Amino acid sequence: MQSRTGGNVLIEMVRITRKLKVNQVGQADVDMNSLWEEYILVQLKKACLNTPYSVSEQQSKSFWGNMSLRPDIIIKKDNTTQVIIDTKWKQIEAKKPSTNDLRQMYVYNDHWQSKFSILLYPGAEQTPIFRRKFSYPDHFCGILKINILDLDGKLDKGIGERLVDYFQEDGYL
What we know:
- InterPro entries: McrC, PDDEXK-like_dom_sf.
- This is Restriction endonuclease.
- It comes from Aequorivita ciconiae.
- This protein is α+β, with helices and mostly antiparallel strands and 173 residues long.
- The chain contains four helices and ten strands.
- The strands form three sheets. A six-stranded mixed sheet has the order 3-6-7-8-10-9.
- β1 and β2 form a beta hairpin.
- The chain is globular, with a radius of gyration of 16 Å.
- The two termini are 32 Å apart.
- The model is unreliable at 1-10 (pLDDT under 50).
């Protein structure tokens, strides 16, 4: 059986269920960070079918010794990094991400030669992309809170298209 993203549904289900952990009493604990990342990845891949954009997950690059960097999601066009996305399943106050999250995005931008990275959070309401330029060099980090539910209160299966639209409207794609 094929999914809408062109992949096998069974393979996608196995990938998602690998994110579940079983606790000491045999119940599944859900790693919401991993599930959020996987959901956004699948939706973006679906949204970028038949477009000039390619979406990849967790590309590793050597950083220091045997340590590597691995952003959650990278969107490229013609093999050039356009947007780096780091999904965060947490709430932030007043557009103030943690210092460590900002440092992480700065390094991703620099290492992947990207002009724009974004911290993507779930939110009850849709917010416009808030972006701020890093002091040096010429790249930006944005913050976006996106509602994961559609108008009927169901999981939004068009979230990937909405993200692509936002990135295009703001000139990142």
